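Work Package 4 report. The design task specified in the project plan requires that, given a folded chain encoded as structure tokens, an amino acid be chosen for each position. We show below one input record used in the internal validation round.
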């Protein structure tokens, strides 16, 4: 009798765990953005992925001078972020973000597009020349990712991305390209200290030049790479060197990480994502804009707590957002700028 009850309980727990894992989305909308030749306008195109169970007529929306709008927003965002970094007033940051991104959403998304997204189980942002910041858009009293979970792909995906992941994560490689003398140099040691405290297996390497950084990426095998670095959209700079490792070189390095979390500024660019989502890497999380070491420690700690408790990378990423930045107020550092790419 006890054996029968034990089997029942174990089965129930297994079913609950399975239900908590994300399933392959039955209906996925694909958002792509392009610029006509010799124009500053943006054309947003929204369509149901061909593999979806339902169909819908595609939608198109033109944003006059949309490129300028995005550039202006990025400048405003970085100035607000820099001020917050100095003052620590996260409440002010979130209040202004909610107001600005709600107004921005009205320019970039038509009412028909919002209704279209509401009917999808997943929004795929197919990035090409730049990352489109769908993750920061706000519709009424919700972020867009609360209406439909958002993933990014480097180019239009041939199939609906598979966000399930039964892999058992065991360890993290923390790659410190900043060093103790850098003003952001607290990130890698801070993340490593958290992993040590929580008993998560990890190693850390100080790589302050291109040669040692490339060797570490090539020769290290780990389940997760935490990349603490300075970067531009197509290059990262170990030790703040004048010349760094370009994305083209990174793409040719045979890396062995299943999931990568990069806190380098602008490494959420599709050029960088395409270079990382190679070989065995399935999931890539990075910042579209500038970020800070403080964000890296806080976000990394929460993300790894989730991941090593059995969540998939997708779940772990969105749980951080769902529990910390979906209320009317937040004291959490700004992680809206982080995006989730999938191969």
């Amino acid at each position: 009798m006890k054996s029968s009850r034990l089997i029942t309980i174990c089965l129930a727990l297994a079913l609950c765990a399975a239900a908590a894992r994300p399933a392959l989305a039955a209906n996925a909308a694909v958002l792509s953005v392009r610029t006509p030749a010799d124009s500053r306008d943006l054309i947003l195109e929204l369509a149901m992925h061909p593999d979806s169970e339902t169909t819908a007529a595609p939608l198109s929306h033109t944003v006059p001078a949309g490129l300028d709008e995005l550039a202006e927003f990025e400048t405003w965002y970085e100035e607000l972020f820099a001020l917050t970094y100095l003052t620590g007033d996260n409440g002010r940051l979130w209040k202004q973000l909610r107001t600005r991104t709600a107004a921005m959403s009205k320019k970039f998304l038509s009412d028909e597009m919002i209704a279209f997204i509401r009917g999808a189980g997943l929004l795929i942002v197919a990035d090409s020349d730049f990352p489109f910041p769908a993750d920061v858009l706000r519709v009424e009293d919700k972020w867009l990712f609360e209406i439909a979970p958002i993933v990014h792909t480097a180019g239009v995906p041939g199939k609906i991305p598979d966000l399930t992941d039964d892999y058992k994560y065991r360890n993290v490689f923390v790659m410190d390209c900043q060093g103790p003398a850098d003003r952001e140099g607290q990130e890698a040691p801070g993340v490593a200290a958290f992993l040590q405290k929580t008993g998560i297996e990890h190693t850390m390497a100080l790589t302050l030049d291109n040669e040692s950084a490339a060797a570490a990426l090539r020769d290290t095998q780990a389940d997760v790479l935490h990349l603490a670095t300075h970067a531009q959209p197509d290059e990262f700079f170990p030790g703040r060197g004048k010349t760094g490792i370009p994305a083209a070189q990174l793409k040719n390095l045979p890396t062995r990480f299943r999931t990568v979390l990069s806190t380098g500024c602008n490494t959420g660019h599709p050029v960088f994502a395409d270079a990382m989502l190679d070989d065995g890497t399935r999931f890539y999380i990075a910042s579209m804009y500038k970020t800070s070491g403080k964000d890296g420690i806080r976000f990394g700690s929460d993300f790894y707590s989730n991941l090593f408790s059995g969540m998939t990378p997708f779940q772990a990423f969105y749980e951080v957002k769902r529990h910390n930045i979906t209320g009317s107020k937040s004291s959490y550092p700004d992680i809206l700028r982080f995006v989730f790419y999938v191969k």
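The mean pLDDT is 89. Validation will be extended to a larger panel in the next phase.
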